[in-house]
Amino acid sequence: MQNQEWKTYIDSRNTGNFDVIRASWVGDYNEPSTFLTLLTSTHSGNISRFNNPAYDKVLAQASTENTVKARNADYNAAEKILMEQAPIAPIYQYTNGRLIKPWLKGYPINNPEDVAYSRTMYIVKH
């Protein structure tokens, strides 16, 4: 491992001049494809340069499914390919800690996008 200045890191990443590289991604919408499509062979964010036609095919199929059940089955198949091929090694998960008073209600504690609007919150008598 070697530390690089940002410009050098970007050049190394863009040219594939690495054996192992650190990168991150934060899902920008609440749906598995925000992460899974990153590893399709033509995605500009595919830093690992993973190329698997079966993976591309199952994700293309998922995007045309009409039911959540069918789409999730395709996503499970895609994840199985990733587990077998291991083009990436997720080693860190971002977390956001919150200290919420018990009298604050309406805070979306289970919101995977971590979006909270004050209009949904209220204070109960305490």
Your description of this structure?
The structure is a single chain. With 126 residues, this protein is mainly alpha-helical. It has a domain at 6-85: Dipeptide-binding Protein, Domain 3 (Dipeptide-binding Protein, domain 3), CATH 3.10.105.10. 33% of the residues lie in helices and 3% in strands. The protein has a two-stranded antiparallel ribbon.
N-end to C-end Cα span: 54 Å
Content-based structural category: mainly alpha
- CATH-level-4 superfamily name of the domain at 6-85: Dipeptide-binding Protein, Domain 3
- Give the CATH level 1 class of the domain at 6-85: Alpha Beta
> Spans with pLDDT under 50 lasting ≥5 residues?
none
- Following the backbone from N to C, one meets helices and strands in this order, namely HHHHEE
What can be said about the biggest beta sheet?
Answer: 2 strands, antiparallel
CA gyration radius, whole angstroms: 19 Å
Binned, the helix content reads: 25-40%
Mean pLDDT, to the nearest integer, reads 91
* Tally of alpha and pi helices: 4
> What is the name of the CATH architecture of the domain at 6-85?
Roll
CATH topology of the domain at 6-85: Dipeptide-binding Protein, domain 3
Percent in strands: under 5%
Broad shape: flat
- The total of beta strands comes to 2
Spatial strand sequence of the major β-sheet? 1-2
